Amino acid sequence: MIEVLAKLGRGPVFLAGEVLECVITFTNPLSASSTSASSEMLAWASAQIHCQFHASENRVALPPSDGSKHDVQAENETVFVPNRGERGQCILSTPPKILFCDLRLDPGESKSYSYCETLPIDGPPSFRGQSVKYVYKLTIGCQRVNSPIKLLRVPFRVLVLHGLKDYQFPQDEAVAPSNPFLEEEEGLKKDCRLADLATELLMVATSRRSLHLYNISNTRGKVGTFCIFKTVYKIGEDVIGTFNFSDGDISCLQFSVSLQTEESIQEEFQRRQGQPVSFSTHARHQESCLHTAQSSFSLPIPLSSTPGFTTNIVSLKWRLHFEFVTSGKSAGTCLVRGSQSEAVTWTGVEQMEVDTFSWDLPIKVLPTNPVLASYVSQFSSTNCITI
């Protein structure tokens, strides 16, 4: 028996273009004093990153795939297929890397191997929607002699920030002599600079503030004014807005604001012509506001949500969805006297004619620092199997 443990060094969330580093440890757990202790052998082990795409058959019409399916592992087969048995199509993969050949482990012995790979910068982000899914996994394949291949899958999340692909790092050390023994160290240094650059770009894009004022009105007149200071956010931020109903001609009885994503399939891949888009609500604020002059809301953008993106198949956009309930006539109160002449009780009207209308405000949502997103990730940094 051999235990295989894979651990992601920094957490399960990465930016496209970063270097993923995983330490894979192979251990013979039996101690030398055990009566059944013996040396264990593995013929080989290899690792590879791939992105699996899955689409809902009711919503998406995909062209037939030419890739052959590998759902059954032959006893003597030694071909490493990382997406074997997975649903959907493998749309992106890195070249496989061999970790070792002919590994022998004595009782209680363990050996560790480091796997490093740059995540493709032109791939889609991780996404689990109502119509499509993009799932990234690191798969480690191991095989004993004359035994089927065992696969250890390590799922992780990828965030895509546009603009990193075209950035050219300055050649600060171009005059220094090259050292082949420092190649890995230099690669890690560039990876750190990439994360710092992403943080800087996100800070610049989301820190710009300017007053956006919108008049809220329907066919009968003005209801109020809505104010928001920016329309570009990072996941993890709060969307804050204020209402002013004091300058309205029509009384607003109730309003609600929903933070939503709009998932739409590109026209050529739609199952039905003109099929509706899919909406998902991530946060909602509702308030009764009769006789309220001003009000506000704060909606958090979950760190686990996917920033807006577009591929050749699907598009994801963010928006604020407003719903207003206004009075059909002048909203008043009803005066009801008590048993004593000096005592009065104010009560609301029992019935009132109302009008409802809605409004959508598009916003832009960008990724955040992957280290911050790792704290709330559903994926574990450590995965293991026993062979």
Structural description of this entry:
- With about 375 residues, the protein is mainly beta.
- The protein has 2 helices and 23 strands.
- A hairpin with a 6-residue loop joins β20 and β21.
- The protein is elongated and about 95 Å long.
- The model is unreliable at about 70-75, about 170-180 and about 180-190 (pLDDT under 50).
Shape: elongated
Distance between the termini: 6 Å
Tell me the structural class: mainly beta
Mean pLDDT: 84
Main sheet specs: 7 strands, mixed
Succession of helices and strands = EEEEEEEEEEHEEEEEEEEEEEEHE
User: How much helix is in the residues?
Assistant: under 10%
Question: What's the helix and strand layout?
Answer:
Layout (H helix, E strand, L loop, with lengths): L2 E6 L4 E3 L3 E9 L12 E16 L33 E5 L3 E9 L4 E9 L8 E2 L3 E12 L6 E10 L23 H25 L4 E7 L2 E8 L3 E3 L3 E7 L7 E14 L12 E11 L5 E7 L8 E2 L3 E14 L5 E5 L6 E5 L5 E13 L3 H5 L7 E5 L1
Parallel strand pairs: 2-10, 13-22
Antiparallel strand pairs: 1-3, 1-23, 3-7, 4-5, 4-6, 4-9, 8-9, 9-10, 11-12, 12-14, 14-17, 15-16, 15-19, 18-19, 19-22, 20-21
